[in-house]
Specification:
Elements (H helix, E strand, L loop, with lengths): L1 H6 L2 E10 L5 H11 L3 E7 L2 E8 L1 H13 L6 E10 L7 E3 L21 H7 L43 H8 L20 E4 L5 E4 L1 H12 L4 E4 L4 E6 L3 H11 L8 E2 L3 H7 E2 L2 H8 L5 E6 L13 E5 L4 H10 L3 E5 L11 H8 L5 E5 L11 E5 L2 E6 L21 E3 L9 E4 L2 E4 L9 H17 L6 E5 L5 H13 L3 E4 L1 H13 L5 E11 L5 E9 L4 E7 L2 E3 L3 H5 L1 H13 L9 H4 L3 H13 L4 E3 L2 H11 L11 H9 L11 E2 L4 E3 L1 H12 L4 H23 L3 E5 L6 H13 L3 E3 L11 H14 L1
Parallel strand pairs: 2-5, 8-15, 10-13, 12-16, 18-21, 21-22, 23-30, 25-29, 30-31
Antiparallel strand pairs: 1-3, 1-4, 2-3, 6-7, 6-15, 8-9, 9-14, 10-14, 11-12, 12-13, 16-17, 18-19, 19-20, 23-24, 24-25, 26-27, 28-29
Length: 763
């Protein structure tokens, strides 16, 4: 009977959801079906890939097995649904045109992918018709999210719709066995986008290959080039040209923040930086992020970065590869935007916004639908941690939500700094690309466009909206507006609770969890600013079980940019009026006029903000050590403190933990002042400070006895702190979880907001 059964023709309908569009999945299915002598068809639709296949039982079983085991490397199968039906008796196996049905769109939009080796060979082969063509791509690489306006991912739904393929490109596009089969951005010099070099007034100086060569010459001469890349403009200068870097910093008003470098190849990076095998894999991956590497070549210009670490990337588009092949030396490549404003994506917008920064503009005529910055990754412990999730990663779905959850369509609007939004679709979380700080009108408009654009691409109609609990955040106010206009529920979520839940999602763990959420700021349930929190996560909610002792900060948001103000608030809490007699760096950095104002403010205390922020404690210690009194970018003081820490010492200062869970830093600060007085090296003091925080983590973890510990918040971007914490907590018998695919900073809280909303809905 079994042998007879195997000879019967059966028909199987499959539907596959996940990352299965735009990466050669249909050609793979076609080749597999042909090899197994199966009949039927495959196509894309708004939910993923649909397959109808006919054959005997043995053939179909093998087809399903190999479908999963041999799928394209970039694909991710989230779910396969099967339905057996009566045979139709297909005569062959075909790839059908995509269908754009009216049901819910859940097909995954893929992120932009770095240029593959095959396409690189094309652009550097003089005999190839795409020789030196900067928009070369195939099904295995190239633009995806940055050109998509809607799903399914077909050419008419992208910004390539205006380019009519020539006969040669169309033949490739139509041939199932060609690697450019249904490569939606497929083009060549005869039918695709082209480059132009413009001056500051938008006048065309050169076209095509000549514009590329003149761009190279401009970089060599020390000019600032605004180059339209994959997801927006980049500002580029020669990394070995000190005057050009200085000019870029001056014009962009970016005096200290490190600048990212692009190197021509991995060998040249090895000359300047320590590169582990894992870091090399990251640099060469299809995501091709900026990777933070420890530098050892003192020849790297301090103007690029005066830190021990620099952000480094390899070329990831054909245009970058062509530029770097000509230059053969590193370039500074930083986001093409004004301070606190979004990255420019339009040619005319770039002329208007960057005209006072760039000397020349290398542009092209392929529109960018979705602005996407470069991603940033850092190795912490033995795994990569995404610090800025954008090109290469967004908007790939995160790990699936717990079974039975995620049926509600939830829109999460994130926070105020490092904003990213998230959608809950089909039991998955789609986390947007890095949007940035919502500090200006343009930044807020940019945020709204991405909300509308991502929702439109998926035809996403939220049933619930969630946001940060801070009522003054623009993202929270926008959430309130949307909730009222759509007449759907709004669920505000406490900032640090969202952080911990994001860490839990990232690691696929469940309550009970002790979350250590340390960052710069977050609205607390008591109306004060939290940031040094220990949260006990239960099945139904959370409790704040320990926290840093509160202190006053002078000037609200200004304190985040002036560590010396934070130091004054802490010193006042300890010494009161005796503060003014101390000989400390923060006091010496103020004028007498300023000090008189602060004396009055601290004496009254009435209007001063109270905070338990660990990020601000880092600022205060950096100011006391004299390494940062005024910061020009977020995290500058904390980064400096990490950089100088002497990893050879295990000494630490004592910190008292009171019965109510308050962590008193009084002894810590007094001991630091004593060490300064005794002329202890600041490298030792900085290390002892970090070690003290780790000792507190272990003490509180032991007090509550919850085995699962999640480290989350911006403070855990600090490699020294995080690695020490993992080591000591693990030695103490705890299971320690850190972020990996979801940023530990505020770029990840939208994912946590989704989970918080689902928890509240299910209660």
């Amino acid at each position: 009977m079994d042998s007879q059964n195997n000879l019967l023709i059966k028909c199987l309908n499959l539907h596959i959801s996940g990352s299965v569009q735009g990466i050669g999945f249909r050609p793979f299915v076609y080749r597999l079906a042909k090899e197994l002598e199966l009949k039927g068809w495959v196509n894309n639709n708004a939910q993923g890939v649909a397959i109808a296949v006919e054959g005997n039982q043995q053939q179909l079983d093998l087809f399903i097995e190999r479908l999963q085991s041999e799928k394209p490397a970039r694909s991710q199968i989230q779910q396969i649904t099967q339905e057996w039906c009566e045979p139709v008796h297909y005569q062959t196996f075909e790839i059908h045109e995509s269908t754009d049905n009216t049901s819910t769109k859940t097909a995954v939009i893929l992120p932009d992918l770095a240029t593959c080796d095959d396409c690189l060979r094309d652009i550097f082969n003089p005999k190839n018709r795409r020789y030196r063509y900067p928009f070369t791509n195939c099904t295995n690489c190239g633009t995806r999210y940055s050109i998509i306006r809607a799903v399914p991912y077909d050419r008419h739904n992208t910004t390539m719709h205006k380019f009519q393929m020539c006969a040669d490109c169309q033949a490739e596009y139509d041939q199932p066995l060609d690697r450019r089969f249904h490569a939606q951005p497929n083009a060549c010099p005869q039918c695709g986008p082209h480059l132009e070099l413009w001056d500051r007034d938008g006048r065309v100086l050169a076209i095509g290959e000549q514009s590329l060569l003149e761009t190279v010459q401009g970089i060599r001469e020390g000019k600032i080039l605004a180059i339209k890349g994959l997801g927006g403009f980049q500002l580029v200068v020669d990394a070995n040209h000190a005057a050009a870097i200085s000019k870029l910093r001056s014009r962009k008003h970016r005096p200290h923040k490190p600048l990212a470098l692009m190197y021509p190849n991995l060998a040249s990076i090895h000359q300047d930086c320590q590169v582990s095998d894992l870091e090399a894999q990251l640099l060469k991956s299809t995501e091709a992020p900026i990777v933070l590497l420890q530098k050892f070549n003192k020849g790297i210009k301090p103007l690029v970065s005066n830190n021990d670490y620099i952000g480094v990337m390899l070329p990831y588009t054909p245009l970058h590869h062509l530029l770097m092949a000509e230059l053969q030396s590193p370039i500074v490549a930083t986001s093409g935007n004004l301070s606190d404003e979004p990255i420019c994506i339009d040619n005319q917008e770039a002329i208007a916004c960057l005209g006072n920064i760039a000397d020349l503009f290398l542009v092209h005529n392929r529109d960018i639908a979705q602005p996407v910055d470069d991603s940033v990754v850092r190795m912490i412990g033995d795994h990569p941690v995404i610090l800025r999730r954008a090109r290469g990663y967004a908007p790939s779905p995160l790990a699936p939500l717990p079974e039975g959850e995620g049926n509600k369509r939830i829109l999460a609007l994130g926070g105020h700094l490092k904003n990213a939004i998230a959608l809950s679709i089909n039991s998955s979380i789609i986390l947007s690309q890095h949007i940035g700080d919502l500090e200006t009108k343009k930044a807020f408009e940019h945020f709204q466009r991405i909300v509308q654009g991502l929702c439109a691409a998926y035809e996403f109609q939220p049933e619930v909206i969630t946001c940060d609990a801070h009522p003054d955040y623009l993202s929270s106010q926008y959430a309130q507006h949307l909730s009222q206009s759509l007449q759907i529920p709004l669920i505000p979520v406490q900032h640090h609770y969202a952080h911990v839940l994001a860490g839990m999602i990232d690691n696929q763990i469940f309550a009970p969890v002790l979350g250590i959420a340390w960052d710069g700021t977050g609205y607390g349930l008591d109306g004060t600013i939290w940031g040094g929190e220990f949260l006990k996560i239960t099945d139904s909610g959370f409790a704040r079980v320990a926290h840093l002792r509160q202190f006053s900060i002078l000037g609200g948001d200004k304190a985040a940019k002036e560590p010396r103000r934070v130091a004054l608030g802490i010193l006042w809490k300890i010494f009161g009026d005796r503060l003014w007699d101390l000989e400390v760096y923060p006091l010496q950095s103020f004028t007498n006029f300023e000090l008189n104002i602060y004396k009055t403010l601290l004496a009254k205390q009435g209007n001063l903000i109270q905070t338990s922020s660990m990020g601000r404690l880092f600022d205060a210690v950096a100011a006391l050590l004299g390494i940062c009194q005024v910061a020009s970018f977020e995290g500058q003081a904390a980064i400096a403190l990490e950089q100088i820490s002497d990893a050879t010492t295990n000494d630490f200062y004592g910190m008292d933990v009171k019965n109510d869970g308050e962590i008193d830093w009084t002894n810590l600060i007094q001991s630091i002042l004593e060490d300064i007085q005794n002329q202890t090296a600041i490298t030792i003091i900085a290390a002892k400070f970090h070690n003290s925080l780790v000792a507190v983590m272990v003490a509180i973890a032991r007090q509550f006895g919850i085995k699962q510990i999640v480290l989350t918040g911006g403070c855990f971007q600090n490699r020294y702190l995080t690695e020490r914490a993992i080591e000591r907590l693990t030695q103490a018998g705890f299971q320690v979880y850190c972020h990996q695919n979801i940023p530990p900073n505020d770029g990840g809280i939208a994912a946590g907001q989704i989970m918080a909303a689902l928890r509240e809905i299910s209660d």
